[in-house]
Structures are given as structure tokens and as C-alpha cells.
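Each lists chain and fold; for instance:
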Amino acid sequence: MRIGLMVGPERGRYAEKVERMCAAARWAEDVGLASVWVPQIPDEFDALTAATVVGQATSRIEIGTAVVPVQPRHPIALAQQALSVQAVCGGRLALGLGVSHHWIIDEMLGLPYEKPLRTMRAYLDVLEPALHGPGPVDVENELFRVHNPLDITDVAPTPVLLAALGPAMLRLCGERTDGTILWMADERAIGSHVVPALTAAAAGAGRPAPRVIAGVPVCLCRDDEVDAAVERTNRILAEAETSPNYQR
């Protein structure tokens, strides 16, 4: 097991956000943590842009996105951005993707949130060859028609990690990606559900055992701050109640 740190922007003074995020990433690298992960929050920094900044502030630590929603970005556009970040970071980027949640994609962005498994499968059809370049990307499927060369970096391949909890998405994840990124999944769900499904799918596709990135929220406080800490934690994590993907 390796331990990493989520380094997303903190609420507060805008002028301090970037430096605080970079300082957290530098601290993680200095104390020997394995990775830092940047979230894609609807009203905050773009995760890949933030990963670029973190890459410039560090030199060794792995940098991942957790996770970039695929619906708002064409797979070629995402590949261009990810490969550009990979070139800046010197091969340290792990690209975390997901189909997000209905309340973000549909209610906030006004985009269709339909057949997420089909969406991700078709998306990977384009993204996989794009990230394994340089070279041409020629794909036609039920959602995309792409004939586009890419020649950005020979740092390849960029690892792809997929947010997955349901059986079908875990199967797709194991068959076609490097692992999964979880959020608020406890050790029972990981041990009895996620890992068996993921490793079986990977083995069936002739792939090595995938990575499992388990996001665990932790709140630290003084003895006299417990009530405020509980209130803040409940407020921040309340999204689980409106996100069926977390309730599977």
C-alpha cells in the first residue's frame, strides 16, 4: 500500500489558493508520500491545469486527477490537454476519468446524462489510441467519428484510471484501464466487491492486476472543535446522499 494526498484548492483568499496547493504538494513530496491527487470540483480549479502547476512545483511525486468528467470534453481535446500536462510533468501524470453525476452533468451543465457505460466505452475507444501516440487516431463508433493525428509527446503511455463502483463499470475498468479511483468506499466494499470484480475483468482481458486508488476523507481537529468539524464534514460529504453512484 502506498499513501498519497488530495491537494485540491482550499476555500479562502483567491490569491493564496495556488501557493497553498503547491505548498501541500511540495510537503507531500518532501515527506515521502507516493502521490498527490487533484480533484475536479464544479466551481473550482480545472484539475489538469492545476496538475500542471503542481508538476512545476515538484520533481518526483506522481500527480493524478480525481477525476475529470468526460461528458464536457471531446476525447481528442482531453488527450491533447493530458499529453501536454504529461510533457510538462515529465511522465508523472495519471489521468483519472469518470462519468460524474447527474446533478453535475445534467442539472449544472445541461448535458445529457444517458447510458454512462456506453459513453465511457465509446470515449475510451478514442482516448486510448490518442494517449498511446504520437500517431494518427482513426475511430468511428456510435458516439464519435475521429480522424485526427496527435504529435505532442513521446512520454507514453499515460495511465488511465476510471471512477467505477457498479459491476459493469468495474468490468470495463478492469478490461481496458490501469485501475480505479474510489471515493468514500470502505474496506468491506473494496475487499469484497471492487477488487474481485476488477481483477477478474483484468485477468480475462490478459491485463495485469489494476491499481485501486481509495480516496478516504479525514478530518483533523482539536478537542474543542469536534462539533464544528462534524458539521463541516457532514456538509462537505452530503453529496453522497444525492449521488446514486455512491450508494451502489
Notes: Residues 187-204 form the longest helix (18 residues).
